[in-house]
């Protein structure tokens, strides 16, 4: 009789758990940082003249161009773009880009916080941060460049999808498409240097890592998609994977928002998997109506957007409110001491410090099992953020398509 839990799933999760334990016991993050940070930091310092030389040609037109390009390849943009891709009928492409984005975001941010290398120094270098997203990015470490990494992977995969979808395309079309992708990647990398957000070593690191991840993803993407839509034990495996990835994330030299970014997109991937597992045969198979076809004209697609966007925003708000209520209750029942960075005022550090000594004396069973975390308490905001974005993503692929079906959209 076939095992209820495939062996490879158990082995994979045990491998991550082993890494968490060993990393905590031997402080592997600090060891790796001591080997890599000095070299990367010296490259950042030696690359300052290149940045200053490029910024001699600053102009308001170039400022607007590179700020705009940076916004187009930012995580918030992709988060807003991916729902439209799902609703347009290109479910497989949307799934793959979501999982690839989550993979890139986690890998890139892990390396950033392991190395903890500085960005180019301001005011020696002019740093142009116009949007709120860019101001948050400026507080992260610099190596590798996430914008370059994400652009290489996502534009490269999109190119692969387009060329595969149009197998009859001639060589000139393929060459032109490849040249456009290379130009786009080059502009993004150059723009990050021009804006003072990254040094040359950050861009090169993002480019090399992006090419490596893209090559790896092209080898496994069909297996990942087949697993998500048709394999067994998918949702429970992905829940366990998401939780373990939170614990496996390295501790940076100084706090940065990188962990929050990865938590949000890990939640998105979890929500997509959960929703697609339930509704693939109804809304996400390969024969659904696609935009710009007679079955889904542009007017109908616009109707989907007008209905879908407000719905997922409401679900995001409700998911956050529900998580803020459920998680503290669950943690207390399990004897896990928690704190809040800001989502739950009653659990902020100042209001829970009186309980700290008591909890250290008698942690719950689950708390004792998590010995590898080296924490007296856990930030409940992490769980809230994970569930909030999981709920949002679930609504994109499950709730909202169900509403479309009822409204004949």
Automatic annotation (TrEMBL):
<keyword id="KW-1133">Transmembrane helix</keyword>
<keyword id="KW-0378">Hydrolase</keyword>
<dbReference type="GO" id="GO:0046839">
    <property type="term" value="P:phospholipid dephosphorylation"/>
</dbReference>
<feature type="transmembrane region" description="Helical">
    <location>
        <begin position="64"/>
        <end position="87"/>
    </location>
</feature>
<dbReference type="InterPro" id="IPR000326">
    <property type="entry name" value="PAP2/HPO"/>
</dbReference>
<dbReference type="Pfam" id="PF01569">
    <property type="entry name" value="PAP2"/>
</dbReference>
<feature type="transmembrane region" description="Helical">
    <location>
        <begin position="175"/>
        <end position="194"/>
    </location>
</feature>
<protein>
    <submittedName>
        <fullName>Phosphatidate phosphatase</fullName>
        <ecNumber>3.1.3.4</ecNumber>
    </submittedName>
</protein>
<feature type="transmembrane region" description="Helical">
    <location>
        <begin position="232"/>
        <end position="249"/>
    </location>
</feature>
<keyword id="KW-0472">Membrane</keyword>
<feature type="domain" description="Phosphatidic acid phosphatase type 2/haloperoxidase">
    <location>
        <begin position="94"/>
        <end position="218"/>
    </location>
</feature>
<dbReference type="InterPro" id="IPR036938">
    <property type="entry name" value="PAP2/HPO_sf"/>
</dbReference>
<keyword id="KW-0812">Transmembrane</keyword>
<feature type="transmembrane region" description="Helical">
    <location>
        <begin position="296"/>
        <end position="315"/>
    </location>
</feature>
<dbReference type="GO" id="GO:0005789">
    <property type="term" value="C:endoplasmic reticulum membrane"/>
</dbReference>
<dbReference type="GO" id="GO:0042392">
    <property type="term" value="F:sphingosine-1-phosphate phosphatase activity"/>
</dbReference>
<feature type="transmembrane region" description="Helical">
    <location>
        <begin position="200"/>
        <end position="220"/>
    </location>
</feature>
<feature type="transmembrane region" description="Helical">
    <location>
        <begin position="6"/>
        <end position="28"/>
    </location>
</feature>
<dbReference type="GO" id="GO:0008195">
    <property type="term" value="F:phosphatidate phosphatase activity"/>
</dbReference>
């Amino acid at each position: 009789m076939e095992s209820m839990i495939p062996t490879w799933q158990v082995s994979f999760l045990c491998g991550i758990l082993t890494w968490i334990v060993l990393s905590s016991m031997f402080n592997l993050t600090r060891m790796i940082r001591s080997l890599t940070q000095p070299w990367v930091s010296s490259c950042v310092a030696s690359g300052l003249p290149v940045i200053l030389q490029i910024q001699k040609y600053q102009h308001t037109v170039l400022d607007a161009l590179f700020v705009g390009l940076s916004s187009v390849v930012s995580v918030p943009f992709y988060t807003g773009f991916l729902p439209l891709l799902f609703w347009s009928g290109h479910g497989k492409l949307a799934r793959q880009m979501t999982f690839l984005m989550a993979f890139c975001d986690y890998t890139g941010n892990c390396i950033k916080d392991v190395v903890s290398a500085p960005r180019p120094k301001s005011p020696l270098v002019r740093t142009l941060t116009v949007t709120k997203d860019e101001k948050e990015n400026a507080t992260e470490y610099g190596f590798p460049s996430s914008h370059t990494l994400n652009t290489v992977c996502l534009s490269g995969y999109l190119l692969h999808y387009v060329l595969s979808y149009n197998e009859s395309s001639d060589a000139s079309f393929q060459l032109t498409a490849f040249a456009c992708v290379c130009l786009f990647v080059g502009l993004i990398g150059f723009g990050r240097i021009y804006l003072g957000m990254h040094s040359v070593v950050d861009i090169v690191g993002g480019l090399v890592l992006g090419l490596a991840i893209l090559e790896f993803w092209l080898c496994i993407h069909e297996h990942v998609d087949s697993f998500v839509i048709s394999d067994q034990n998918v949702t429970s495996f992905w829940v366990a994977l998401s939780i373990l990835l939170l614990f496996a994330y390295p501790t940076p030299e100084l706090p940065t928002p990188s962990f929050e970014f990865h938590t949000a997109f890990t939640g998105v991937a979890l929500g997509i998997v959960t929703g697609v597992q339930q509704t693939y045969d109804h809304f996400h198979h390969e024969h659904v109506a696609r935009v710009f076809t007679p079955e889904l004209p542009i007017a109908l697609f616009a109707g989907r957007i007008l209905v879908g966007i407000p719905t997922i925003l409401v679900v995001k708000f409700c998911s956050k409110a529900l998580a803020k209520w459920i998680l503290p209750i669950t943690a207390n029942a399990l004897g896990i001491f928690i704190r809040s960075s800001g989502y739950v005022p009653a659990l902020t550090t100042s209001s829970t410090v009186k309980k700290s000594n008591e909890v250290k004396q008698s942690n719950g069973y689950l708390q004792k099992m998590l010995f590898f975390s080296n924490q007296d308490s856990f930030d409940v905001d992490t769980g809230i953020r994970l569930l909030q974005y999981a709920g949002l993503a679930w609504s994109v692929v499950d709730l909202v398509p169900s509403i479309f079906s009822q409204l004949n959209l």
